[in-house]
Write the C-alpha cells for this entry.
Amino acid sequence: MKPTTDLCDAHEDKLASGALRVLAPVFQAFGKRKLFGGQVLTLKTFEDNSLVKQAVDSPGEGRVLVVDGGGSLRCALLGGNLAKAAAQNGWAGIVLNAPVRDADEIDNFEIGVRALATVPLRSQKRGLGEFDVTLNFAGATITKGDWCYVDRDGILISDHELS
C-alpha cells in the first residue's frame, strides 16, 4: 500500500471531486500495524460494543471496520479481547469514532486501530447498533464498500480502490 501522502498527491482530482476524503486528524494509533487499508464495513452504535464484538468475531477478509460511536468519550468500544479477535479473524484494521481501552494489550496484536482516545470504562452490552449504514464523522462521509487507507499521516476514505 502506498503512503497516504502519495495517494493524495496522485489523486488530487478525486480529492477535488469528493471521491477521496481525508478524515480530520483527531485519531490516535494503536496496534502493531501502523499502515493498513482495505474495503470498509460500517457500523453505527452508541456506548454499546455488542455489534463490534459480532463484527470482529466474524471473518475480516482484510477489511477495515469503521465504527461511528457518536464521538462519545464516556466508554470504550474496543479493548484487548476484541482487538485480539479482530487480528485472529483477519481484519486489517479498525477505525473508531470513540475510545479504546487496554491500549497496551492492543499494541501487542497484529491489527491497526485508530481511535479518539483511551478510557478505562467498558461499554454497555445491549445489542444496539446498525451495520451497513452511511456514517458521517471527522469531516467525511463513509459508506459500506468504500476503501480506507491508514498510516501515520492520516486516514483516507475513497469511493473506489486506489492503486
